[in-house]
């Protein structure tokens, strides 16, 4: 998907919501387990049916599918297939390895599966990221400042000139690709940093996890990092949307949760 | 596997060789593709049959299996099953995510599959690593200084006190687990750094990729980082061993390549 297509969708739907399909088989409603051969896919299908007009992106957390084994990969493939083609998709995989290995990961997620983007960990540097940038209209979403507690351990490691690791990652990686191919992960749990990072990358999209279960708010994110006329944000909620209900009406409750977030966003779009 | 069992195996075999089963379906001998339903497993099986007395570890690069799709996961599971129980196994996956996601990855590789260890990227800090440390006799192999060109981009980012990121990763992570649960990845392509890292972690095992195809030598590694009476090293070769031949005799040639490395190691063990 191109940058302009993504932007158009955002203003059409008045939403920059990404919904994280981090589906834990132990947390989905029991009637799905009883009734369906592939309850994970059925869960996703109903969530998608009830939210696709409210969000612009689905983020699939690969760990959750992989943990189920072979059946999980099948649920993943079916879910990806089911997502309408005009909605942006993220393989949340946080991969990154030496060149010949990253190339394999790129083939998996961009060739065999048709994700629009993949999250990549920057620790191993340029040649671990480059293979993902060789695919046309596919995106790398590079970890910069993550939403978890451990983000403090290394991402703030600061050099003599006062540049923190996450700032260096953002600065250096801008020489690898432009804002039409690269996004950055910045956790909503660091609202004070959002404005600073927006100044470093005035045009790039930021993928913002950490809204909802992890504590960040849409309003803080929009105020600090929204780009006029381009939005420049995908704000993700996973557990807060998909586990809004735990009964037969789970999909309706996920719609209500998604709508609440979308309406907070609409004020800015 | 315990540290002592690993050490015992190393001195019994006079080898600290890890063989990387990074099997690219496009590079395996054509007669296997023609004859076998699962040519990737057959390739691995023959390599294992011909090398298991010469190495103490097999490292399975998950990217290569994942890229084949569902069949790849089946080849991976069969290969892991086939490796003799007294040989150390590494899921070379370079995972690392927020806690609830890392927990899923840990379940995949330690519960559903029975790997002894997994490689983990440190970028997201302690809570991205901790879930892997909850499994008894299972190991985390944390990326410190990798073997690729891109290792220069961020791993050398140095603070006011002169501490580089890879040094900080090694120092901080020692508070997360002891040398019986944690190893570090240090590329053989940085021989000048091996001695320095050994001084930081006098007892920990180091997993050393980058011998062979990437240019490092066994002799340099052993001289700089070998620990008397504990060895403290797993030196990995992937392409140099498994693609030593490309015909019907590929497994014999892989044995010859493995033996050459093992004999260089034996002088120190």
From TrEMBL, chains A, B:
Alphabetical list of Gene3D superfamilies matching this protein: Aldolase class I
UniProt keyword terms in alphabetical order: Decarboxylase, Lyase, Pyrimidine biosynthesis
Domain Orotidine 5'-phosphate decarboxylase: 16-254
Domain of life, per lineage: Bacteria
GO biological process: one example: 'de novo' pyrimidine nucleobase biosynthetic process
UniProt KW Acetylation keyword: no
GO MF annotations in UniProt: orotidine-5'-phosphate decarboxylase activity
Pathway noted in the entry: Pyrimidine metabolism; UMP biosynthesis via de novo pathway; UMP from orotate: step 2/2
Matches recorded under CDD domains: OMP_decarboxylase_like
E.C. number: 4.1.1.23
Catalysed transformations (reactions): orotidine 5'-phosphate + H(+) = UMP + CO2
A Pfam cross-reference name: OMPdecase
Catalytic class of the enzyme: lyase
Family, similarity comment: Belongs to the OMP decarboxylase family. Type 2 subfamily.
Name of the featured protein: Orotidine-5'-phosphate decarboxylase
Taxonomic source organism: Membranihabitans marinus
């Amino acid at each position: 998907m191109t940058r302009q297509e993504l932007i158009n969708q955002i203003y059409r739907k008045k939403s920059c919501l990404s919904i994280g399909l981090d589906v834990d088989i132990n947390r989905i409603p029991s009637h799905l387990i009883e009734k369906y051969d592939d309850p994970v896919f059925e869960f996703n299908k109903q969530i998608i049916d009830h939210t696709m007009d409210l969000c612009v992106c689905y983020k699939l957390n690969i760990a959750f599918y992989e943990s189920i084994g072979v059946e999980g990969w099948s649920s993943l493939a079916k879910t990806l297939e089911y997502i309408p083609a005009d909605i942006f998709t993220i393989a949340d995989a946080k991969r990154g390895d030496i060149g010949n290995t990253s190339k394999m990961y790129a083939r998996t997620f961009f060739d065999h599966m048709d994700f629009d983007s993949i999250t990549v960990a920057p620790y191993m540097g340029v040649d671990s990221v480059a293979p993902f940038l060789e695919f046309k209209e596919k995106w790398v979403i590079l970890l910069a400042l993550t939403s978890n507690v451990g983000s403090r351990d290394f991402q703030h490691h600061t050099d003599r000139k006062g540049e923190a690791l996450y700032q260096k990652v953002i600065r250096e990686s801008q020489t690898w690709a432009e804002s039409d191919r690269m996004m950055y992960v910045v956790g909503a749990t660091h609202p004070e940093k959002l404005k600073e990072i927006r100044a470093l990358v005035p045009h790039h999209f930021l993928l913002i996890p950490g809204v909802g279960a992890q504590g960040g708010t849409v309003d803080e994110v929009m105020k600090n990092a929204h780009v006029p006329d381009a939005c420049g944000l995908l704000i993700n909620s996973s557990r807060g949307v998909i586990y809004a209900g735990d009964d037969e009406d789970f999909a309706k409750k996920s719609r209500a949760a998604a709508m609440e977030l979308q309406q907070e966003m609409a004020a800015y779009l």
